[in-house]
């Protein structure tokens, strides 16, 4: 039994409680009252993105833990394992939330995405290995902050405001830097370290990257078309 599972369970419960109480903390505007569940779900996702987004790897962290840049398998800074476990708890909670409140044809892409993340991050939590690799993957959450803000602004019917336009520009810029570039770097790392990674783990990582990369490229195209070429 891994203590990390306790963190996963605690995270699941905490995000579930947050989800249930968010409507009182952030009441939905009239334009979002028809879909109160989605309003709560997006704000819960934003809360998660802000957590790893502010604790993801940075140049300072790599300087304080130089081994992290050389070994993403067995080396990770203090707190990194717990951060990955918290993310697993969130993705499990969001998976259950979508499964219970949204039709399958509307959510299958995100459910598929969450399944891949839960498996990959779950391996890191259980084995206490590849935590550094998972920590690099959490860089994408920096962009997720602006993705979720975009959805909130859309639901609040603020699409024609300066705030939405500014967020769209930042969203697209951080998408390229923190999502597409990060996934490309992770794919390169897997390829260069294929001899140092067990075959089963390498297969899981390769399949994960093969799924996530096209999904993110398609989402980038949708964002570009919707916000800039509509």
Automatic annotation (TrEMBL):
InterPro entries: TLC-dom, TLCD. The keyword Translocase does not apply. Pfam families: TRAM_LAG1_CLN8. The chain crosses the membrane at residues 133-149, 169-191, 203-224. Residues 34-230 form the TLC domain. This is TLCD2 protein. The keyword Transport does not apply. PROSITE patterns: TLC (PS50922). Keywords: Membrane, Transmembrane, Transmembrane helix. The lineage of its organism: Eukaryota, Metazoa, Chordata, Craniata, Vertebrata.
């Amino acid at each position: 039994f891994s203590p990390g599972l306790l963190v996963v369970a605690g995270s699941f419960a905490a995000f579930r409680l947050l989800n249930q109480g968010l409507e009182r903390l952030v009441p939905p505007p009239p334009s979002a009252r028809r879909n109160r569940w989605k309003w709560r779900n997006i704000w819960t996702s934003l809360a998660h993105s802000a957590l790893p987004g502010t604790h993801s790897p940075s140049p300072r962290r790599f300087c304080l833990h130089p081994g992290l840049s050389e070994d993403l398998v067995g080396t990770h800074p203090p707190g990194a394992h717990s951060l990955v476990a918290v993310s697993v708890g969130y993705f499990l909670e969001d998976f259950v939330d979508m499964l219970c409140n949204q039709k399958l044809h509307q959510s299958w892409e995100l459910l598929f995405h969450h399944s891949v993340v839960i498996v990959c991050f779950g391996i890191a939590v259980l084995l206490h290995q590849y935590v550094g690799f998972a920590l690099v993957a959490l860089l994408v959450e920096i962009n997720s902050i602006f993705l979720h803000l975009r959805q909130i602004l859309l639901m609040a019917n603020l699409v024609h405001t300066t705030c939405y336009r500014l967020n769209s520009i930042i969203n697209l810029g951080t998408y390229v830097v923190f999502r597409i570039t990060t996934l490309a770097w992770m794919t390169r790392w897997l390829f260069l370290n294929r001899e140092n990674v067990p075959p089963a783990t390498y297969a899981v990582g390769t399949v994960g990257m093969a799924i996530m990369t096209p999904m993110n490229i398609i989402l980038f195209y949708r964002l570009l078309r919707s916000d800039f070429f509509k």
